[in-house]
Design a protein that fits this description.
Helices cover 34% and strands 13% of the residues. By secondary structure, it is of the alpha/beta class. It has two domains: 9-55; 62-484 and 491-569, Amidase signature (AS) domain (Amidase signature (AS) enzymes), CATH 3.90.1300.10. The chain has an eleven-stranded mixed β-sheet with strand order 1-3-2-4-6-5-10-11-9-7-8, with helices on both faces. Helix 9 (373-389) packs across helix 11. The N and C termini lie far apart (73 Å). The relative contact order is 0.13. This is Amidase domain-containing protein. GO terms for molecular function: catalytic activity.
């Protein structure tokens, strides 16, 4: 390692006591004399370098400069009557002045509140006081890559959608602004952490079908998915939600949880709209280190809508849409703890019936390592997640984190109390990181990363026999929110009461975040709410494909839809 320069000792505020404190944290005692003097000088020099960078003007990558819009970028807080399910965080009306295509012309889009929208704050679902001390949330100076692409495609961005506190919940009770309510049933979870995105899209479909008023909603939305945060809310909300192949969609400009599992993906009410939005946001951006040589250049992005349309109309006389497609029902996914019988039976019955009716072959297939998938996900991310999520650590590769996000660190008692009251999962992340590092060291996290490659290989081995894997998505239908505040009827839910509902929710989704396979939630039926037998709530099926075969995942969902129509006709 080279030393940039040696600082002027007389100008430094770093003293020998600082060196001794730093050494003590490493269980080192530096002897007095020349060693101590030299190491102090080196520490002073390093401090001087950092202070010079701190004082310098920041740099905004030209590709992330906000797209020019038809009107100045302004935003406003939604009023309660226009935000009845708390799905909006900030509202806006953004259209590009000179869109480069009309792919999404006339379509409205919501963006999850961990993704930078130029001119709007980004709160990551948490409290203003944890993001800025003066109470004035700084607006984003950049458009995330996906935001620029949505605007340039002719869409109208209507605002940022509520997400869970620090994006750290698969349920929807934890946002600083309060719970997000399921569009099908008020006071029930809509899933997280892309809770607002899923709810706004589902509300559009429900409004069209029943006339129920949800205020302004949207046609399409973008969510983030680290363990299922697009697919789980899509499952609870009865819509489509896709986690693309890792590295297909740039994550640039979004707040990370951990680089190896970060994904952005589309939510919509139809496969055609999933394909459309996927085409718009896909492709190498030259900035995101998550993207690989396998990531397509923008000019090489597949025309997903055309591929889907051509596939739907491709059948010859006496041939069915699913002919030649081999579907594998992942045995271990139907045996997970907490899977309700109505979800299990619905996914099994509809997948066997509809895929078969459409001409596909359906078999049972076993991947025993799937049972360990969520354990590998946890071990591979938990030690360092606090550093990425809470402390804003960079990836170690050239990366462009949102420059306006400066979350509080280190935590204090007030931060602990706020998060314990809303999302104790964040406190658990902050506590478990240093504890696990002290107990096990980085070697176990590194081993878990190697196990992720083993898990990927296990799924890839199954894909030698079949084209598509099928699992349940969320293990139950939506459940009521926990009690978030004390009142005359009793105390608020305890930490464990809040978190127990989330245990096992991502067992079938998180494994594919560490392996990178594309996965799509497909609405497949309805179940009965456990405490409201008069209420039907959506059930979701997960379709998984080989890496980089996102188009085949869409086609398989089209086969499922075709089979459903054929079964209805018989």
């Amino acid at each position: 390692m080279s030393v940039a320069f040696l600082a002027d000792k007389t100008q430094s505020t770093i003293r020998v006591e600082d060196l001794r404190e730093a050494a003590a944290e490493l269980n080192i005692e530096i002897p007095h004399g020349s060693d101590e003097e030299d190491y102090l000088h080196l520490l002073q020099s390093a401090d001087s370098v950092m202070r010079q960078i701190e004082a310098s003007e920041d740099y905004i990558h030209p590709a992330l400069s906000p797209v020019e819009t038809t009107h100045p970028r302004t935003y406003w807080q939604p009023v309660i009557k226009d935000n009845p399910v708390n799905a909006w965080r900030h509202r806006c009306e953004l259209m590009a002045s000179s869109p480069t295509s009309d792919t999404l012309k006339g379509r409205t889009v919501a963006i999850k509140d961990n993704i930078s929208i130029g001119g709007l704050p980004t709160t990551v679902g948490t409290f203003t006081e944890l993001l800025c001390k003066d109470g004035n949330l700084p607006p984003s100076p950049i458009d995330a890559s996906v935001v620029s692409r949505v605007l340039e495609s002719g869409a109208t961005i209507k605002g940022s959608s509520t997400c869970e506190n620090y994006c750290a919940s698969p349920l929807s009770f934890s946002a600083a602004t309060g719970p997000v309510h399921n569009a099908w049933m008020y006071s029930y979870t809509s899933g997280g952490s892309s809770s607002g995105s899923a709810t706004l899209v589902a509300a559009t479909a429900i409004h069209r079908a029943s006339g129920k008023d949800f205020g302004e909603t949207v046609d399409l939305a973008i969510g983030g998915d680290q363990a299922g945060s697009v697919r789980i809310p899509a499952s609870y909300s009865g819509i489509y939600g896709m986690k693309p192949t890792y590295g297909l969609v740039p994550y640039t400009g979004a707040v990370p949880l951990a680089p190896m599992i970060d994904h952005l993906g589309p939510l919509a009410t139809s496969l055609e709209d999933i394909a459309l939005l996927l085409q718009v946001i896909t492709g190498y951006d030259g900035i995101d280190p998550r993207m690989t040589p396998e990531s397509p250049l923008r000019s090489q992005v597949q025309d997903y809508p055309k591929l889907l349309s051509d596939f739907r109309s491709s059948t010859q006389e006496k041939e069915k849409l699913g002919s030649g497609l081999k579907i594998g029902l992942l045995r271990e996914s139907f045996e997970i703890a907490g899977l309700s019988s109505q979800v299990r039976d619905t996914v099994l019955e509809t997948s066997r019936s509809f895929f078969t009716a459409a001409g596909a072959e359906v078999i049972d297939i076993s991947v025993p390592m799937h049972r360990d998938g969520s354990l590998i996900w946890t071990a591979a991310t938990r030690m360092s997640m606090s550093e990425w999520l809470c402390q804003g650590k960079t990836s170690g590769y050239p990366s462009f984190l949102p420059p306006h996000i400066q979350a509080q660190w280190p935590p204090d008692q007030r931060m602990y109390e706020l998060l314990t009251a809303t999302n104790p999962a964040v406190v658990n992340i902050m506590l478990s990181g240093p504890f696990l590092n002290k107990q096990f060291g980085s070697k176990i996290e590194a081993k878990a990363h190697r196990k992720a490659f083993e898990l990927r290989a296990a799924y890839d081995k199954a894909f030698e026999e079949i084209d598509i894997l099928v699992t349940p998505c969320a293990p139950t239908v939506a459940m009521p929110h926990p009690k978030m505040q004390s009142d005359a009827e009793g105390p608020a839910a305890t930490v464990m009461e809040k978190l127990s509902q989330a245990v096992g929710v991502t067992t079938n989704t998180a494994p594919f975040n560490v392996t990178g396979h594309p996965a799509l939630n497909v609405p497949c039926g309805f179940g009965i709410a456990t405490d409201r037998p008069d209420v039907k709530l959506p059930i979701g099926m997960q379709i998984i494909g080989r890496r980089w075969e996102d188009a085949l995942v869409l086609k398989a969902a089209a086969v499922f839809e075709a089979g459903r129509e054929l079964v209805k006709q018989t």
